[in-house]
Amino acid sequence: MPAQARRSQTVKVRDVAREAGVAVGTVSRVLNDHPTVTRELRERVERAMAHLGYEVDVTAQSMRAGRSRLVACAIRDFDIPRFALFIKEAEAVLREARYTLLLASTTNRPEVEIALLSAFRRRRVDGVMMTLSDEQHRDVREALSEAPMPVLLIDRNRIEALDRVTADHRQGARLATSHLLGLGHRRIAVLVGDTKAFPSRSRLEGLREAYAAAGVMPDPRLLRDNVLSSEEAYRATASLMSLADPPTALFVAAMDMLGGCLRALRTMGIAVGDGISVVAGSDSDLAELHTPPITAIAWDLAAMGRHAATMLLERMRGDEIERGRGLTVPTELIIRGSTRPVAN
Amino acid sequence: MPAQARRSQTVKVRDVAREAGVAVGTVSRVLNDHPTVTRELRERVERAMAHLGYEVDVTAQSMRAGRSRLVACAIRDFDIPRFALFIKEAEAVLREARYTLLLASTTNRPEVEIALLSAFRRRRVDGVMMTLSDEQHRDVREALSEAPMPVLLIDRNRIEALDRVTADHRQGARLATSHLLGLGHRRIAVLVGDTKAFPSRSRLEGLREAYAAAGVMPDPRLLRDNVLSSEEAYRATASLMSLADPPTALFVAAMDMLGGCLRALRTMGIAVGDGISVVAGSDSDLAELHTPPITAIAWDLAAMGRHAATMLLERMRGDEIERGRGLTVPTELIIRGSTRPVAN
DNA sequence: CCCCGCAAATGAACCGGTTCATTGACTCCC
DNA sequence: GGGAGTCAATGAACCGGTTCATTTGCGGGG
């Protein structure tokens, strides 16, 4: 069927109005559940719509209204297994409120974040939830402050004016570190991600607090930051375990990096538990079902997704709420067999 | 700032035209890289845009053009870790082509699939890639055939008119089953997902082919279908292993169900490898790093995502291509320590 | 010098809804 | 009976781009 023919065939409010013998304004009011329509006309219009197979053109509605019923989610990389849960729950909440989710990857680069914000504006997106590669980045902050729609930060907290949903990574890291120190470990290797971002900064804080509480000094040579991929985790672990005086414990304080570390340990023939104590920064089937099972920090990403969507919707509704609300989901340490007293 | 004030402040083509001293048509032609604009005017218009901070309104463009530069992806559940890879790669290809990805979950229900197709039409979405809960569902097929935009099926193949990207699950299942039969296993338990959908059907075909080639009859009492969640996998495994004559091998022929099975085996104190041979239907860190490592079927989901997006874009471009093109990515069996000769 | 042909530029009409000032009908009350 | 008040319904104007029939300008040929 030629596109043109199809095009001219589509049923419009005009056609519905003619069929029902009413004005276009009335059809529009029926469409939008406006209260000032008599039951009789409403029914006539609805019959006409059903009869003609009418479907509103959302692009026309968006153009007129200046909003799109779209909510964008931009994160650094959606190939983080547990993050899918966040998105899944957020989408469910948004769809329930008759919004559609728009998804984009920032690849953790400021210029992409800025370009996406601009694209979202041009699309008249109604709200945005996103991660940031660097909360201090001047141009990103400017783009955020100029954004006409509400923006909610995902696991970021440095921009006071914006709403945010975070996990209590500090607490998790503190628990994990205290646990290891309590088992007598003093040479604890730590892998963290991007220290410009909240989660890693926050974990480092928790780590330091635990050391301070124990009256012990951390060894900076055992810290590896900017570990953002499994391959980097592999290399970092390999290099740490090759030190003259290797660590007795490994704290993988980044999301979804456990696999890379375990691969390195296996390659080097080092046994988890006996050879080295391991704590995973995020829980997973792998951590739970490994032999031995791996002590891990856990938090509820599904709840984060739901809260993020809910808070953003509230903000979009324009309710008079104080700016920069923050919600923090707690973290817990699940102690399993991979962490053992240090051998003397 | 009041929305109304902001609203009236936005810069429009009209304003750019006035500033540059040209007609609105010219501004539009510059925006769309139309060739019949002299370099001088183009530059003047571009300067005016930069000066005024002009941003096109995509909703207006969409309304006029009847298309939105949106591509929708609707899958049954995005909380399938490996699927994130598909989406990630598809999004990258689409963004490269200046399309934005719209994401929705069908929760594997036909009525949701139909509702989403309708919502995509109303939004003038330019293309759709999706899974289907049941390719034979009458109403879904009708909704698909009435869709004005191209639809590409993800790992589904029963609708001849539609393009599709599939994995060769039959091959994977055949290899896995032959491998187990070759090790002497005759009591092989099998978990599959929804047999109304292509992947499970296809795996069952491969399974039967392998049995036929070996001249052995499968035991239907060892088959569990409709295993769609980890919890169901747990229960199915537990029930299979409680049989009077329990299986010697377990073929987890569904995506991402390995965790549930392993949990059940662990709870029952059955050792993978010695106690039972296990094959995973999809590869993962868990399969690779388990002790013993678990034999698994692997395929390239990233490539599937790239191909899906590329094929859909070609179709959207309206190129004269035969309808219903199919692309199949190969599967391979990665043999690891979890599959051993049957104990006699 | 004039006319033709071509290319560049113009701006009104259009896309398909929503909004709101206006009209029309009806009720209520004095 | 008539005027005020209420409420439903009307439809032209509008949202912000794009398109295309028309105009303008310019070079070249006769």
From TrEMBL, chains A, B:
It comes from the Bacteria. This is Substrate-binding domain-containing protein. PROSITE patterns: HTH_LACI_2. It comes from Bradyrhizobium diversitatis. Gene3D superfamilies: 3.40.50.2300, lambda repressor-like DNA-binding domains. Keywords: DNA-binding, Transcription, Transcription regulation. It holds the Pfam family Peripla_BP_3. Residues 11-65 form the HTH lacI-type domain. InterPro entries: HTH_LacI (IPR000843), LacI/GalR-like_sensor (IPR046335), Lambda_DNA-bd_dom_sf (IPR010982), Peripla_BP_I (IPR028082).
